[in-house]
Amino acid sequence: MGTTPDSSNKRMPEGGRRAGSEGAGRTVLIVDDDPTHVQHVREGLAPQGYRFREARDGAQALSAIREHRPDLILMDVEMPGLGGVEVCRIVKANAGEGGFGFIPVILMTARQAAGKVEGLELGADDYLVKPFDMLELSARVKSMLRLKALQDALIEKNRELDRANKELARKREELLTLSRTDPLTSLSNRRYFEERLAEEFARARRYRSPLSLVMLDIDHFKRINDTYGHPFGDEVLRAVALVSRTRLREVDLLARYGGEELIALLPETSPADALRACERVREAIESLRLDYRASDGTSQKVSCTASLGLASLPSVPLQTAEDLLRAADECLYKAKEAGRNRVRQYEE
C-alpha cells in the first residue's frame, strides 16, 4: 500500500520549473492505490509539460498500457491484487515490437533496499523509496524519458535500416532478373540458360535422372522479316515465345538462344515425355495467327511454323553438356532438312 507523501518533502522551486521541457508531451502513467500520492506526483511533474494517465492497481495499469502506450511508468510496488513487481515483470516480458515495446519503469515503495534489489533484478529501470524528494523524482523521470527517446530513435533507425536493406535486396533481385532475361521475349537469356544447363546436367548425371533439351527455330524467319519488316518479326518472336512457354511446365526453363532460336531445358523428363511436350509446342506455334497491318491500312493473318530438335539423358554417347547441346542442334537441322514444321529426336 502506498504511503501519504511526507509534508517535509521539498516541492520544486519556481525557478526549476521549465514549461516545454525536452519531455513535454510525453505520457507518464502513474500507478498507485493512494490518490493523495498520485496527486502529489502529478503536481510535482506538471511543470514539465507531461501528459498523465492514472491507474489504481496492476490490472488497471496493464489496460492503460495496452490502450495508451505510455512513455514512462511510475508504479507503486505494493498494491491490492496485482502488484507493481508483477506488472513490471509482464511489461518487460512483452518489450518486443509485437508487444508493449520498450517502456521505462520506475518502481516506488516505502520499503528499503531488499525490495530495490528485487525490483531491479526483474527489470525495473529505476527505484525510488518513499518519501522522496520531488527534485530527485523529476531528475529520474527526465533521465528515463531521455532513455526512452534514445531507444525509440534506435528502433526507428533499425526500421529504416531494415526498410533500406529490403529495398536494396529488391533492387538486387531486379538487377539479377534483368541480367538473366532477354529484353525482347522476356524469356531467360543464353547466359543464364548455360549456367542452368551446367547445373542440371551435373545433377542428372549424379542422380541418374532423365534430362531433355530442346532446340527450336522459327521456320523461314528471314522471309517474315523481309516481307513484313523487323518490327513484325519481333512480334512473331514474342508470340512464339509466349505460346511455347504456356505449353511447358513451370519447372522447365525456356530461353532465347539467339536470333529466332529458342532453347528449352526439361528436368526429370524422359525422351517419350519430352517428345510429347515438343509436339504440343510445335502444334501451338502452327496454330498461331498474327494480325499484320500494312501501311496502306490493309490487314492480313500471318502464320508461322517451327522446327525442333530433341536430345535426352541418360545416353551413353552424351557425356557432357556440350554433347547434349550438339545432339539437339543436329536434330534441329534434320527437322529442317526433312521439310520443317516437325520434331526430330536424337537416337543413339
UniProtKB/TrEMBL annotation:
Name of this chain's protein: diguanylate cyclase
UniProt entry tagged with the keyword Phosphoprotein: yes
Domain Response regulatory: 27-145
CDD domains, per database record: GGDEF (cd01949)
Catalytic activity: 2 GTP = 3',3'-c-di-GMP + 2 diphosphate
Enzyme class: transferase
Residue ranges of the region described as Disordered: 1-25
Keyword Metal-binding: no
Source organism (scientific name): Stigmatella aurantiaca (strain DW4/3-1)
Coiled coil, from the record: 147-181
Cross-referenced NCBIfam families: GGDEF
Biological process per Gene Ontology, one example term: cell adhesion involved in single-species biofilm formation
GO CC, one annotated term: plasma membrane
PROSITE patterns for this protein: GGDEF (PS50887), RESPONSE_REGULATORY (PS50110)
Residues bearing PTM 4-aspartylphosphate: D76
Biased composition (Basic and acidic residues): 8-20
Enzyme Commission identifier(s): 2.7.7.65
MF annotations from Gene Ontology: diguanylate cyclase activity
